[in-house]
Amino acid sequence: LVQLVESGGGSVQSGGSLRLSCAASGDTANGLSMAWFRQAPGKEREGVAGINMGGEVVYSDSVKGRFTISQDNAANTLYLQMNSLKPEDTAMYYCAADPAWRQKLRHYNYRYWGQGTQVTVSS
Q: Which end of the chain has less neighbouring CB within 10 Å, N or C?
């Protein structure tokens, strides 16, 4: 089993920045592919960014150029640096992990999930 705990959410104005963190614990010894997803009220959960053990990354078109995913393998921590935030980025952000890597950011490709951290961007 893998446990994921997100932190770093909050409220910012449009154009601002936030950095999300996700601490992984448990069965992480064999490595994990990890990702960030988000879900706004009334909308489906959508993939934001993903990264595999080799550092290969993938982003959704809506955040490309504004968000950066990174990881500290020694600390088992995933990050999401979010710049130039827009009101449409408002959502609950979830950290996800899975032993396998798939380039498509689909929620059903990830076995483990955190509880989420809220990001609110005001105009």
A: N
